[in-house]
Amino acid sequence: MRVNRYIQTTRGIHYYLLIKELPPSSILADHQGQRIGELHSLGKQVVGIGSVHQSGIRYSLKGKNNSPWFIKLETLKDLDNFLAERNIFIKHVRKTDIRMEIDADLKSKGWRLVGKSKNVFAKRTGQNLEEALEQAKNYARKRNSLIAYA
User: Fold this and answer.
1) N or C: which end of the chain has fewer CB within 10 A?
2) How many whole angstroms from its chain centre is CA 81?
3) How far apart, in Å, are the Cα atoms of 40 and each of 26, 114, 123, 125, 144?
4) Ranges of each domain in the chain
5) Where does the source fall among the domains of life (predicted)?
């Protein structure tokens, strides 16, 4: 099965799946286990065709016009096989693993953790606390994060 239609975003490409057996939201990894994307499932938001980003960018369907806009699969095994043919693997993660990944992502962007309570504050070097908190809240909102940065 070829994938000819997709949504182009500023941060990557989105493909849509129609699958009877719904997988949990997961991380997609390459053959070395490096994160290359995410699989969003029930309860997660995805970019819809024709959506308009707050910056004004319209997300439109790209690729061959006569191709379907979704990938239709029956079972999780079909999904695993489809992804494996493309050297992509599902890495099932717990919520705490996702939290650690988001924390690592923040650290890689120059943030430092400021607090050890349930609500973690993140701050870039040289920012005052109010700016850092506002930026952290926006970051968490955009990622539909499981972590409350507030």
Assistant:
1) N
2) 21
3) 7, 30, 28, 33, 11
4) 5-91, 95-142
5) Eukaryota
Q: In this structure, what is the dihedral angle of CA atoms 9, 64, 69, 46, given to the nearest 10 degrees?
A: 0
Quote the tokens at residue 4: 């000819």
Q: What is the pLDDT of residues 87-128, one digit of tens each?
A: 888 887 655 555 566 666 666 766 665 554 434 444 555 556
Beta-bridge mates of residue 45:
none
Label each residue of the chain as H, E or C: CCCCEEEEECCEEECCEEECCCCCCEEEECCCCCEEEEECCCCCCCCCCCCECCCCCECCEEECCCCCCCEEECCHHHHHHHHHCCCCEEECCCHHHHHHHHHHHHHHCCEEECCCCCCCCEEECCCCHHHHHHHHHHHHHHCCCCCCCC
